[in-house]
Amino acid sequence: MRILHLRKIIFISLILITCCGAAIAQEAFAVASSCMFPNKTQWSALDLYWGGDHKGYKPPHKVDPWGKVMNFYKPTGDEAGDREGFNIHELGRKQVYFGIALGVNVANYRIVRKPFTGNNDTVKTIGPGVGPGFNLGIIANWQFNKYFDLRIIPTLSFADRSVKYTTILRQHPDTTLPVSSIYLDFPLQLRFKSDPIKNTRVYVIAGVRYDYDLASNSSARNASLLKVGKHDLAAEYGIGLMIYFPYFIMSPEFKVSQGFLNVNSPTQNYIYSTVIQKLYSRTYTFTLNLEG
To answer: Is the entire prediction scored with pTM above 0.85?
Structure first.
């Protein structure tokens, strides 16, 4: 009997030791896991054994590709805590940066006619004609303030204009004289930017531009030619939208340039030239700026 009771006591003791050991082991495993994953949700020992929230886990190669496309501009690491959605330029770490400007334009003249006299009454009406062109420029941008940039954009511009006449001549009642120009432009602009709206900002620009016409015919000796001068000075103003990407800024922009120097170079005894008192250039440009 004593031996039987002793066996029962030993058996019950072994069961208690096993249960206590399992509980202690489980608690130790949970403590070790909390130390290894301090910022993660605390899972049970079984879940940790199977890899945590194994049902919601997605390997990196199976992440939704559309989510990558929609969130590709968002910064990571230290940049994410500054201002989400903006690249290094807006984080204030790069005040000076460069880019290229690609644009198309339409151009014409604002024409001031001389008063009617017996010498120019052959021409009844005179008006500007519009022609196409394109621009290619290099951008240098100084971001000296949160809202303001100072910009210099040397540009090579091609512009076609024309002047249209109606006359009392039977042989040539309607005449159009084309004027082609190749400009070296040197604009100086001040840009004011709005507060950010996600990854975009609206801005306005204003400035002045000096133009040198490489195709000017003012020194030509042809006596039947509508001549224009080499030098022009214009005021510029416009509006645009800055769209921020991880490594560059894309800015579609529309601007108007209005010259305030008279570019007319009269040709003596040529009625189509002497009828004009002043010519002022005018250009409408759509530009795509890529900066970085």
So the answer is: no
